[in-house]
């Protein structure tokens, strides 16, 4: 069996998340059909991180096993021929069976894009619109308490299936561009809706509705009902999956 590893990018607007569903309107469903057309067999695809409905991926990594011999170009161009324009295989490689798209990853990086403006901009469809001005420095200060290892139950969706709510955030930075901003968040793993729930609470601070130290109190409470609402999906992108250098995963996206 060959372990085939693919690097993907996709626009999540038209999909109900990554994971396969009976109705077939997911990224995994569309990718499986395109791969099976090349493999002439069924495949079981494993991804680095499952994205929710409407969430995008700049760098998603998947693997599957296949007994057929195909040139790497078939796993890229051939599979892309069977995909909609909103999903693209960026690269392919063969790796030893010890590689696992999910369990070999050492960290994951998400970005949440947003902009503040009196009116909505239709060209910013990958960002979340905030009607009122934001205190970005207050948001930076509030986010500092999230770094490190914590119980993130206060920012965990009720349907989350993770065995433990404990996660480690390695970095969380707010960047300002000319007409938009984004948080870049790197962690070992993330709970269901965790980033969007964090953004909802950070926005409460940025809008002046809550003080800077409120976020730390919510985190320590481990109580989801004390945190703010889940923020929209369109601003969130799975930005990068980090692996040990020996696997050369970044080559898939170069």
UniProtKB/TrEMBL annotation:
Homodimer. InterPro entries: PsdUridine_synth_cat_dom_sf (IPR020103), PsdUridine_synth_TruA (IPR001406), PsdUridine_synth_TruA_a/b_dom (IPR020097), PsdUridine_synth_TruA_C (IPR020095), TruA/RsuA/RluB/E/F_N (IPR020094). Its EC number is 5.4.99.12. Keywords: Isomerase, tRNA processing. The gene is truA. Formation of pseudouridine at positions 38, 39 and 40 in the anticodon stem and loop of transfer RNAs. This is tRNA pseudouridine synthase A. Belongs to the tRNA pseudouridine synthase TruA family. The keyword Coiled coil does not apply. It catalyses: uridine(38/39/40) in tRNA = pseudouridine(38/39/40) in tRNA. Residues 10-103, 144-244 form the Pseudouridine synthase I TruA alpha/beta domain. GO terms for molecular function: RNA binding; tRNA pseudouridine(38-40) synthase activity. One of its GO terms (biological process) is tRNA pseudouridine synthesis. It comes from Limnobacter thiooxidans.
């Amino acid at each position: 069996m060959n372990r085939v590893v693919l690097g993907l990018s996709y626009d999540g607007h038209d999909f109900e998340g990554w994971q396969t569903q009976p109705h077939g309107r997911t990224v995994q469903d569309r990718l499986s059909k395109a791969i099976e057309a090349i493999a002439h067999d069924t495949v079981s695809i494993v991804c680095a991180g499952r994205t929710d409905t409407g969430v995008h991926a700049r760098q998603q990594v998947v693997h599957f096993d296949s007994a057929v011999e195909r040139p790497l170009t078939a796993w890229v161009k051939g599979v892309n021929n069977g995909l909609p324009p909103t999903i693209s295989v960026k690269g392919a490689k063969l790796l030893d069976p010890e590689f696992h798209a999910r369990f070999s990853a050492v960290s994951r990086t998400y970005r949440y894009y947003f902009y503040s403006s009196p009116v909505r901009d239709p060209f910013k469809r990958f960002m979340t619109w905030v009607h009122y001005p934001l205190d970005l420095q207050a948001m930076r200060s509030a986010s500092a308490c999230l770094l490190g290892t914590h119980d993130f139950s206060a920012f965990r969706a009720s349907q989350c299936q993770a065995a433990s709510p404990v996660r480690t955030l390695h970095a969380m930075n707010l960047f300002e561009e000319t007409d938009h901003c984004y948080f870049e968040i790197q962690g070992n793993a993330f709970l269901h809706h965790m980033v969007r729930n964090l953004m909802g609470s950070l926005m409460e601070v940025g809008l002046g509705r809550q003080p800077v130290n409120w976020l730390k109190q919510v985190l320590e409470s481990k109580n989801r009902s004390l945190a703010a609402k889940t923020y929209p999906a369109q601003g969130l992108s799975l930005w990068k999956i980090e692996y040990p250098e020996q696997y050369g995963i970044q080559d898939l996206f170069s």
